[in-house]
Amino acid sequence: xxxxxxxxxxLLHLSAGGVSIVVDVRGGGLPRIVHWGxxxxxxxxxxxxxxxxxxxxxxxxxxxxxxxxxxxxxxHSRGWPGTPGLSGHRGGRAWSPLFTVTDVRLDxxxxxxxxLSVRGLDAAAALGITLEVELTAEGVVRLRGTVRNDGDQxxxxxxxxxxxxxxxxxxxxxxxxxxxxxxRQPQRQHFHVGTRLxxxxxxxxxxxxxxxxxxxxxxxxxxxxxxxxxxxxxSGNHRLYAERMPSDQRLLAGGxxxxxxxxxxxxxxxxxAPWLYAxxxxxxxxxxxxxxxxxxxxxxxxxxxxxxILNTWEAVYFDHDLGKLTALADAAAEVGVxxxxxxxxxxxxxxxxxxxxxxxxxxxxxxxxxxxxxVGLVRARGMQFGLWVEPEMxxxxxxxxxxxxxxxxxxxxxxxxxxxSQQVLDLTHPGAFDYLLGRLDALVTEYAIDxxxxxxxxxxxxxxxxxxxxPVVHAHTLAVYRLIDELRARHPGLEIESCSSGxxxxxxxxxxxxxxxxxxxxxxxxxxxxINRWTQLLLPPELLxxxxxxxxxxxxxxxxxxxxxxxxxxxxxxxxxxxLTGLSVADRxxxxxxxxxxxxxxxxxxxxxxxxxEHPDPALLIHGVxxxxxxxxxxxxxxxxxxVTAPPGRIRLPGLDPVRRYRVRPLPPGDVQRGINHxxxxxxxxxxxxxTGAALATVGVQAPDLYPENLFLLHVAERxxxxx
Length: 724
Ligand code: GLA
Description:
By secondary structure, this protein is α+β, with helices and mostly antiparallel strands. It contains 13 helices and 40 strands.
């Protein structure tokens, strides 16, 4: 690591991974970002200076007399008319700080990234600020602000948000919303003057959380159009916004949403906002690819092949019976499952979802000998063992709630509205924290548990700390992180899945300490095609749990062929969540083929570049994964509905090396052309076709005419020694 003190007058050009960021720290104020986006190539100091000058706007009428530059931390005191980056006060004063820079440090890491740290001070307001800007080797920008109270009276922090500018070409906004069973749905709009604000006030990341807020060039899509996206790495309340001023200054910004009085800094105390992640690309795929590569480069990214999972939830629900579970484990092992996860229903008083949360002891009435018989059997079949828990939750009908009603979150002398008959345990009570750590530690130790599915099935409403009712969402979120960190420190091999009624806790804060997320409680493959597609805006496939559910989906009432369900789950962290014991012999062996295919492909699927091609007919989705060395790829053509035309036309297969030659052929068992047309496309009759990457990306191949809610897989392999 090369550490430089860049000087308080620095104008810096950082570039890595195809991205440049130009930071202007001249003039004494906090940094201004001159450029964030495409790599600018080598620039001399003189050229950098010219660039910075060329980017300054002229004065117009009825504005402050000096240029109001948009800072990384927008300051009201400098005349920024939009949302200030820091808002807070000390007894009604020090509410509009004006920072001057005291220190600029630049570390250029050997791995090709950069870390810039700028410290500032407002002596009159008695506040210090630290802004960290990292550009990772993959081209992702990470940002964080920390504020320090230098006064001798408490300072109340209301908000600390940092922002990055986007150019005037970014005329459209995309963010995501969702609900239980249908997470991560895109919504687009024009980037109007004003603030497009997505707030999370649910105390968890939220089923409707946006994951990423994207600003982009008109008509941007997965493969084309410049895009700039931002994510808040935080599992509690948060804000993510895009703001445009009448001056046409535009930015993306984010931070934690602090409830009144949640952060009051005593003398010398600091508050660090969550990390923000920002990624640029030409097309959403390139933006995502940078994020995926950055995540994969983390030291804590899962390194072992992702074990194929059997989760018991949609197989048995609360009906825990050793005989039934034994048969299920036998069937799972037979089809190739590698990790058996016992879901909800194993602990005291948990016969349905109205009682028991908090009583983290194996239920003696259901499991007189504990879980040892089941765990032993699972291991004897060569599988890992996983267990479902929901540590932060408590049912009023539980021993725990009766013993410690004061540990339940409440904003006053009343309980928050019940939600799935449960309340939230306030982990800022040391007793509650210690109890949970003790129970989880004991269970993981006793059964040598490999994997916890860590659930969180309600919003935090009136998230107050008893007896006073002070808001505690911020401190509780940190306590949850501490709990997971401590458990993992005690059990370094333990893997954890972040589940929250499906995809309600999907963010890079929780993923710093967990190994995958559960994408949705909806295992309907049709819904999952779109949920997975959009969740992968942020996450690479190996971090996204995706299971083969029953033929009849209990969440939508739809029925789907096994091939459609399995071919959909194939691309994520693959699992099964159905009663295998009820399958026909033919279906079981078909499922075993899919499991085997996933095992064969997972090294590629979990390391390659995700591509999502657009087809003019929205009824046809195309997505795939291309190996990093572009020798191989797998694509899925998905008929989401009936097409407007028949046949659907050609499909382009992008992301390959334009000059290499590739053999394309259907990939069994995903090669069944279920459709009305018994006459396959001519190239499919021949079984394969060989084309260059350029031809596949620009001309493509004729798609088969599929029934709706079916898919077709293609395998693409470089023909050795045949570069065109
Ligand atoms: C939540 C989860 C499901 C399942 C149930 C069990 O809804 O998202 O996957 O674990 O809880 O109660």
